[in-house]
Amino acid sequence: MVKQALMANGPGPLGEQAKKLTCDRALWVASMANIGIVLGVVWNMTEKPGTWGSIAATAGSYLVGATLALRSGRRPAVEAVPVSEPA
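^ thats the sequence. predicted structure below, dont judge the formating
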């Protein structure tokens, strides 16, 4: 879906469909939660906690990544158009 929208857009400024994809929460969660899991696994490999500590660290890092994704995947504010003064 993403690739098709970008291919349909072609070179130049982003079209409406491509702009909507930049705010898609599912894409943000998938990409940032995966980074959170990677960081949780790296922490597990360096600290070597017990079984429940490893599970908690991985789940916690996933939740942190998903939370950050939901906060950063918001739609940008609509720019206000300046009003010209009457002549």
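The chain has a mean pLDDT of 83.
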